[in-house]
Amino acid sequence: MFIGLDLGTSGLKALLLDREHRVRATASAPLTVQQLQPLWREQHPADWWGACELALATLLGEAAAQGIGADEVAAIGLSGQMHGATLLGAGDAVLRPAILWNDGRAHSECAELERRVPNSREITGNLMMPGFTAPKLLWVARHEPQVFERVRKVLLPKDWLRLQLTGDYASDLSDAAGTLWLDMARRDWSDALLAATGLTRQHMPTLHEGPSVTGVLRAEVAARFGLRRIPVVAGAGDNAAGAIGMGIVRPGQGMLSLGTSGVFFVATDGFLANPARGVHSFCHALPHTWHLMSVMLSAASCLDHTAQLTGAADVPSLLAAAERRGLNAATPSYLPYLNGERTPHNNPKARAVFFGIDAATESADLANATLEGVGQGLVDGIEAVEATGARAVEVTLVGGGSRSGYWAQMLADIANRPLLLREGGDLGPALGAARLARMGIDGGALGDLCPVPAAIGEFVPDPARHALLARRRALYHRLYEQLRPLYAELM
After folding, report:
1. CATH number reported for the structural domain that contains residue 469 in this entry
2. Structurally, how many domains does the chain consist of?
3. Are residues 234 and 254 in the same domain?
4. What tens digit of pLDDT does each residue of 245-288 get?
């Protein structure tokens, strides 16, 4: 058996996988985000460990109820939210709450880093964005110098969990790629970019490919959960791990993820980039493999927010009302920028907007506008990624939002391409983390270890609906351009 742990933003998920690719048990534990100031998003690492303990105990309890002993677990793989800055001092003491991926405070530091390292885009393949890790460290150096001078190690969220599990400072290349300290083509730290933030390699974890074993469980952790001192593999950032779970490991395979954030992901066998349009160019979780990715900071979370605004009983009831009402030419438009935006705008000050409300507008109309606005933003990302020349031959739809057939069909109509649903599409990165754990100790053919799950549904675009949505797409773009100067004036 293999355990996958996925440290998300809203919770930690644990999954138990057997060698026949069957998921035998799952568990989760919730997390909350602190928002002390506008643009700030933080979490306390101690909460991550508390969630990990709870999820592991629940998972192993579910396994035991099926007659599966903890001693049958052979390895653990890790996945997690990317870009978070977890700062450790002497004795591995956490110096401040971790600054998260959707934190937008370090906008001016991005410009400063590009000034200090003029060829940073060539090194990293990416535009400096405030959500990435490097600008956050420059922000800490400027605004919390008493904290910065005590920094001994900088770890990404899942790698802080690894430290608690094994005592090792280690990371994988797919997650490290999101720091903007990585030389993407060389798959190694960039000394120039580290120096630009006042750091050296000594502040960084060691780098490993995703399936590589980085350590074994500490004796006290193993004893607590009844596990053997099993290996822990490097793992992957959440999107790369989600792709591994869906078998997206070869060029031309693509994935559209509808989670808290929205992601379009395409695997490549070479280093490609489009930093000018905010495309993320990262190492994949497998050796000699890269991927391109567009990221919306708010996707399914927009629907949660609209449900709160309209007083809906819950999201499923709001979705049902939206489907009954339908979307038409009179439906309001929506810009889905609750937390700013990455691809293609790189604008942390962008804000969500409903436009075109009149006296006849109902809550179901606002729901349809939200679904469409997120879809239009995702297509912005698809276009930015495919401008590199990397095109997805087929696209798998994953994430919590994929459970809505109504939304899935709308996405297919906006994108004007078929979207596939596959078994396990709602399991998320924890499945990929478990698969990487198996690779780390079993080896074997990639097709055997990362099979593409069976298709369980397909959404084919309707030409008439696409024509309507294409006309509305022009208004969507005009709204952002008209509002962009006003966003710049926001605090």
Report:
1. 3.30.420.40
2. 2
3. no
4. 999 988 889 999 998 889 999 998 888 888 888 888 999 999 88
Range of the domain at 192: 2-239
Enzyme catalytic residues: 238
CB environment 431-440: b (16+ within 10 A), e (fewer) = bbbbbbbbbb
Q: Does a structural domain hold residue 92?
A: yes
Indicate whether 234 and 253 sit together in one domain.
Answer: no
| pLDDT tens digits for range 331-376 | 999 999 998 998 999 898 899 999 999 999 999 999 999 999 999 9
Q: Do both 210 and 254 map to the same domain? A: no
